[in-house]
From TrEMBL, chain A:
PANTHER family: CYTOCHROME C BIOGENESIS B-RELATED (PTHR30070:SF1), HEME EXPORTER PROTEIN B (PTHR30070). It is found in: Cell inner membrane. Keywords: Cell inner membrane, Cell membrane, Cytochrome c-type biogenesis, Membrane, Transmembrane, Transmembrane helix, Transport. This is Heme exporter protein B. Pfam families: CcmB. InterPro entries: Cyt_c_biogenesis_CcmB, Cyt_c_CcmB_bac. It comes from the Bacteria. Required for the export of heme to the periplasm for the biogenesis of c-type cytochromes. Its main location: membrane. It is a multi-pass membrane protein. The chain crosses the membrane at residues 12-37, 43-64, 96-117, 123-150, 157-178, 190-213. Belongs to the CcmB/CycW/HelB family.
From TrEMBL, chain B:
Pfam families: Cytochrom_C_asm (PF01578). Belongs to the CcmC/CycZ/HelC family. The keyword Transcription regulation does not apply. This is Heme exporter protein C. The keyword Ubl conjugation does not apply. InterPro entries: Cyt_c_assembly (IPR002541), Cyt_c_biogenesis_CcmC (IPR003557), Cyt_c_biogenesis_CcsA/CcmC (IPR045062). Residues 20-190 form the Cytochrome c assembly protein domain. It is a multi-pass membrane protein. Keywords: Cell inner membrane, Cell membrane, Cytochrome c-type biogenesis, Membrane, Transmembrane, Transmembrane helix, Transport. It comes from Ruegeria haliotis. The chain crosses the membrane at residues 26-49, 61-88, 100-120, 132-151, 163-182, 214-235.
């Protein structure tokens, strides 16, 4: 399992693995927002938590189609499926690798982008906190979407259409935490809900992803 | 004993030929009954009920709005059940019924949303309000779109049936989750949705406040739409089965010739 994780991480860091692409996208989206809505800092600080959450979500979505597609093309997915390691575990490791290479950098970059959007000071902690708890769910749900569309030639757009509705609860609770944190309201309830969604998806969704992958590899 | 026999009788319709023969026999009845119910219900509702003292004649859109909204949700439920049946018992008719139902669900959701907007404009003063109920319907609409798109995208019919079934199961959980998340989210936005109270047309409020004058035609409309839904699903499932057969015949011809 650790070997698989290390392999995925190596692939992501080296030779056009797309590491950093998500980060760059996150930066660009954040920079474009003031151009779209105007530069008033009061307006920007109101919408900053939501915009940063949406940007992180889209950046995550963007990197999903590479999650399994490369392994599908060169046949290593077939090897994984026949390996002694259960496919559920392999899928979980894939999601973990995706989170380490995409989700975690987004979490770390978010506060700096928060400065650009004039995020209120108490919001920083809660933004990082909510993203830290929420992004694993995005990786796991995204792995499910990638497994669904892995055999398709033009799966990218379809992938977004399938995955975005599944992101709705995570986005709602995550952005709610960041927004409440920024305005100094209590954040416990949405934070616990967000953590619950993340825990449940990590526990259950790999089974669905593995089942779907088996169907696709049939 | 008799229940087991009945259950067996139900599974007989998993045989496409049996399904087609029976559905063709009962379809005319469903068509006539559903159209009769809808016509009677709508005419009664539109022309023979008084205007509401607060809402005027706009209240009459309820005869379209409530039945279609009801069917939009029940259609997804039906797809959930048939998807489960397909995954467990591998009856092709079941998977095809789920496929046949999805576009009907899309149309029902769309009608419910549009009629709601048309009613909301004069009543709430806005076409759209990010109210939990409206929002969750919009999300349901997106789930339908994804489901249909996945069906269309996959070439192999059995793979498509499997994948869409799993998507339907997972999607149901997330749709339910979204429903409650949206409830929470909007409470966070404006405390206590006063607009909906003033409108008093939603779910439970309707049943408490709508008087019998409106209730009977509404019931007839709902029955009519349920029958219409059944007729459409049977009809479209039949079409899907025939399309599948034609494909098989063509494939056999190509191999044989």
């Amino acid at each position: 399992m650790i070997a698989l994780l290390l392999r995925d991480l190596k692939l992501a860091f080296r030779a056009g693995g797309g590491f950093g692409l998500g980060l760059a996208f996150f930066l660009i989206v954040t920079v474009m927002v003031p151009f779209a809505v105007g530069p008033q800092s009061s307006l920007l600080s109101t919408i900053a938590p939501g915009v940063l959450w949406l940007g992180a979500l889209l950046a995550c979505l963007l990197s999903l189609d590479r999650l399994l597609a490369l392994d599908w093309e060169d046949g290593s997915l077939d090897l994984l499926a026949t390996a002694p390691l259960p496919l559920e575990a392999a899928v979980s490791i894939k999601a973990l690798a995706h989170w380490l290479t995409t989700g975690l950098p987004l979490v770390l970059a978010a506060p700096f982008l928060g400065v650009l959007l004039n995020l209120p000071v108490p919001g920083f902690f809660w933004l990082v906190m909510s993203l830290l708890i929420g992004t694993p769910a995005m990786s796991v749900i995204g792995t499910f979407g990638a497994a669904l569309t892995v055999g398709l030639k033009r799966g990218g757009l379809l992938l977004s259409l399938l995955v975005l509705p599944l992101y709705v609860p995570t986005l709602i609770f995550g952005a709610e935490v960041a927004r409440r944190g920024a305005t100094g309201m209590e954040t416990q309830t949405p934070l616990l809900m967000l953590a619950g969604i993340t825990a449940a998806t990590i526990a259950l969704l790999p089974f669905a992803s593995a089942a779907v992958l088996r169907i696709n590899l049939r | 004993m008799s229940i087991a026999a009945k259950a067996n009788a139900l599974w007989e319709y998993a045989n496409p030929r049996k399904f087609l023969a029976t559905s063709e026999r009962v379809l005319p009845f469903f068509w006539v009954a559903s159209i009769a119910c809808i016509v009677v219900g709508l005419v009664w509702g539109f022309f023979f009920t008084p205007d509401d003292y607060k809402q005027g004649s706009t209240v009459k859109i309820i005869y379209l709005h409530v039945p279609t909204a009801l069917m939009a949700i029940n259609c997804w439920l039906m797809m959930l059940v048939t998807s489960l049946v397909w995954l467990v018992r591998r009856h092709h008719v079941s998977a095809l019924a789920a496929r046949a139902a999805a576009p009907i669900g899309i149309v029902m959701t769309l009608i419910a949303l549009v009629t709601g907007a048309i009613w909301g404009q004069p009543m709430w003063g806005t076409w759209w309000e990010w109210d939990p109920r409206l929002t969750s319907f919009l999300i349901l609409f997106l789930f339908y779109l994804g489901y249909v798109a996945l069906w269309e995208a996959i070439e192999d019919p059995d793979t498509a049936a499997d994948l869409t079934s799993v998507l339907c199961l997972v999607g149901s959980v997330f749709a339910l989750l979204s429903r409650y998340a949206v409830n929470f989210w909007n409470q966070g936005l404006h405390q206590g949705a006063s607009v909906m109270r003033a409108g008093a047309i939603t779910g439970t409020d309707t049943e408490e406040k709508v008087s019998n004058v409106f209730f009977y035609p509404l019931m007839i409309c709902i029955i009519g739409f349920v029958l219409l839904f059944i007729a459409l699903v049977l009809y479209r499932t039949g079409t899907e089965i025939r399309a599948r057969r034609i494909k098989a015949l063509l494939a056999r011809e190509r191999v044989g010739g």
